[in-house]
Amino acid sequence: MKVGVLSFAHVHAGGFARLLGGMEGVEVLAADPDTDLAAPGEVRGREFADRLGVAYADSYEELFAWGPDKVVVCSENVRHRPPVVLAAAHGVDVLCEKPLATTEEDGAAMVEACRAAGVRLAVAHPVRFSPAYTAVRAAVRSGTAGGVLAVSGANNGYLPTARRRWFADPQLAGGGALMDHTVHIADLLDDLFEASPATTVYAQVNNVLHPGEVDADTAGLVTVEYANGAVATIDCSWSQPQHHPAWGGLQMQVIGDRATLEMDAFDQKVHGFSESSRAPFELPYGVNLDALMLHSFLYGSGGGTSVTDGESGLRSLRIVTAAYRSAREGRSVPVR
Amino acid sequence: MTHLDVGLIGAGGIARAHLPAWIELGARVTILSTDGNAEKLAAKYAESGVTATHSLAALLDRSTVVDICTPTFTHRELALDAIAAGKHVICEKPLALTASEAAEMADAADAAGVLLFPAHVVRYFPAYAAMAGSVGKGAVGTPAVLRFTRSGAYPVWAPWFSDPALSGGILMDQMIHDLDFARMLAGEVVRVHARLRGRQEPGAKPGDVAVGTAVLTHASGAVSHVLGVWGLPDLQFRTTFRVAGPGGILEHDSTALPGFRILAQGTRPPGEGIPGSPMTESPYLTELREFAGAVDGGPAPRVTARDGVEAVRIAAAAAASARTGEPVELKISEEAAR
Predict the structure, then answer these.
(1) Cβ separation of B223 and A330 shorter than 8 Å?
(2) How many CB pairs under 8 A join A and B?
(3) Residue A58 pLDDT exceeds 70
(4) Could you tell me the CATH number of the domain that includes residue B183?
(5) Do residues A158 and B219 make contact, with C-beta atoms less than 8 angstroms apart?
(6) What is residue A236's DSSP assignment?
(7) What is the DSSP string of B245-287?
(8) How many structural domains compose chain B?
(9) Closest CA to A304 of A288, A290, A292
């Protein structure tokens, strides 16, 4: 199978390329032509491909001429639409980094382009593949948990600018922490609630964590109400200290009327303390969610978890765009 | 410390937590209740000189301090009676069901020159006190985003808890602990949004679930999330917090590091009611000692009457938001502005 990686803008691009390159029977070709927006010192393009040990094409056209079976899009958030539409035009299934886009207009156009071309549009939400989440889903779908009343979720992380500066540039990322992190839990709930629509959103953001360092919102709380009656509050903040041994994490408590459940997608680790570095360290041993997601994208779910589709990614994006409206207006807003 | 004569009103769960602490502090305690439990509780502690009475006048006559441990809807009247009699008052949280009633109580205490101490006992739980001290010294910098959760079995043992007209509901009765704490850490609150789900009506039975979720915006720009759960009968009592700022984080889960735990006892215990903190002294003792010291002319307690009023104001705003789904704006009070 031939898989193209379009752009190294996203911090996940390198990891995806390595994982794909390590899969048996998978050939990888990467292209990263649009490096004009990269911050000084960021390694991109052919140099980055060489470091990863993957083959490199100078342009997307050259990459598509190679005849990929599937492509993965890892461009800046505001630049997802052109490569996805290009993939659709070439009849190639595409996995797009999250969020699907930064505007509903872009997201809807991408979904429509792929639908019209008959190609699959998937969105990279790897946490759906977490065994912890699968257990939550099983408890809810089986009825064991009863009706879901409320959800409290947190997806915290480092300020993601150390490797890619654009993440905190609203012009390129479409926002800040609210844009970056809300969608992971929104995506889990879209799946958990079987696409029950979000009806209203209330959000508050601030930039107390990294004042003067970045322009974007770095902390946020988002409350989402769903047509099925559930209410979820999500902490999407980049509040993980930069030198913490863990990059962050994703936790979710689900309060049903017959059970209360809690999951942590990244807590499978051994905790250590190093005398030489005088610091704690961690040995994560959980399954690689990215690898599971990529495998499902390439070969199908085989009855297991499917990768988020474009329609679902668009629903999660609408929650985020509503959240920004709410934060600006200081009131709860309907989700369009 | 001079001799303490305490009139304890109420003989329910909180009274049973306060009474051993008062005895340890050397107080002579008189208990009043209308349900016959005062006699039973006094009999249990007869060796410590605890007596029961049926008369508020008799209780006031025998006391220098009145400890109000009754259901919330009775707080205002009892407190005003005690204040009018010139007694120092410790009042279980919330001070009252509305901010105006709570302010009336605080103003009356001010005018009478007595203390009105809202018993926000979480301020005395060791993990919370340690965290607050550290945040106060700048350990995380300016708090930016704060999360609090509080969950346990639905308090079905006393029917008034599930009646919002009597208790104010989960936002006012349970989440007020964390609303108070969030305000203490991150400052005055200017906007509140809250939603409620599950059983929020009188007549709750074991197996019912009530949930509240509230988002506070502080004048500093900080945001706080407070989650409260009155849950299933086997939901272990648990509180968690995570306070993040530019300088770092502080986090805690009361069930993660209990110091002592029962790993098996043959049956699954139902969620317990009033939390203890068995590896340290009772936070109720810490709380009452600090109050007793203030009565004796010592430093003011860490919780002021105004803190109690503001906590009610935030909880009442949250309840108003929960009714409409819209955020409620709060004006910073004149005291806070000063």
Answers:
(1) no
(2) 121
(3) yes
(4) 3.30.360.10
(5) no
(6) -
(7) ETTEEEEEETTTS-SS-----SSPPPPPSS---TTSS-HHHHH
(8) 2
(9) A292
The Cα B106–Cα B304 span in angstroms is 9
Average pLDDT of the residues in B224-250: 96
Locate the chain A residue with the closest alpha carbon to B197.
A149
> How many CA atoms does the CB half-sphere of A201 hold within 13 Å?
29
Indicate if B213 and B237 belong to the same structural domain.
yes
Report the pLDDT value the prediction gives residue B3, as an integer from 0 to 100. Answer: 84
Residues B87 and B136 in one domain: no
Query: B34 and B156 share a domain?
Result: no
Residue B101 shares a structural domain with residue B195: no
Does B150 share its domain with B12?
no
Question: Does residue B286 lie in a domain region?
Answer: no
Closest CA to B135 of B168, B181, B97: B181
**Among A149, A211, A233, beta carbon nearest to B215:** A233
- B91 with B203, same domain: the answer is no
Domain boundaries, given as residue ranges, for chain A:
2-124, 127-334
Mutate to test the interface with A, among B135, B211, B224, B230 (most CBs of A within 10 A): B211
Interface of A with B (CB under 8 A): 149-150, 152, 154, 156, 200, 202, 204-211, 218-221, 223, 225, 229-231, 233, 235, 237, 239-241, 244, 253, 255-260, 330-332
CATH number at residue B57: 3.40.50.720
* Residue B98 pLDDT greater than 70, yes or no: yes
B25-54 pLDDT, tens digit per residue, is 999 999 999 989 999 999 999 999 999 999
Please write the tens of the pLDDT for every residue from B77-88.
999 999 999 999
Q: Is B217 on the interface with A (CB under 8 A)?
A: yes
ipTM here: 0.89
Closest-CA distance, A131 to chain B, in angstroms, reads 22
Instruction: Look at residue A336 in the predicted model and tell me its pLDDT.
Output: 85
Residue B152 lies in a domain: yes
- Please tell me the distance from the alpha carbon of residue B213 to that of residue A153, in angstroms, as a whole number: 11
Asked if residue B192 is part of any domain, the answer here is yes
* pLDDT for position B265: 63
Whether residue B297 sits in one domain with residue B253: no
Q: Is the peptide bond before A99 cis (omega within 30 degrees of 0)?
A: yes
Could you tell me the fold of the domain covering A127-334? Dihydrodipicolinate Reductase; domain 2 (3.30.360)
Architecture of domain A2-124: 3-Layer(aba) Sandwich (3.40)
Q: Residue B285: inside a domain, yes or no?
A: no
Confidence of residue B269 (pLDDT cuts 50, 70, 90): low
Q: Which chain A residues are within 8 Å of B230, Cβ to Cβ?
A: none
Could B193 and A332 be called an inter-chain contact, meaning their C-beta atoms sit closer than 8 Å? yes
Overall average pLDDT of the A207-212 stretch:
91
Q: Does B225 touch chain A (CB under 8 A)?
A: yes
Contact call for A331 and B215, based on CB within 8 A: no
Domain holding B111, by residue range, is 5-119+292-302
Cβ-in-10-Å burial (0-12, 13-18, 19+) of B24 comes to middle
pLDDT band at residue B259 under the 50/70/90 scheme: low
Among B80-84, B154-158, B226-230, which is the least confidently predicted range?
A: B154-158
Judged by DSSP in three states, B32 sits in strand
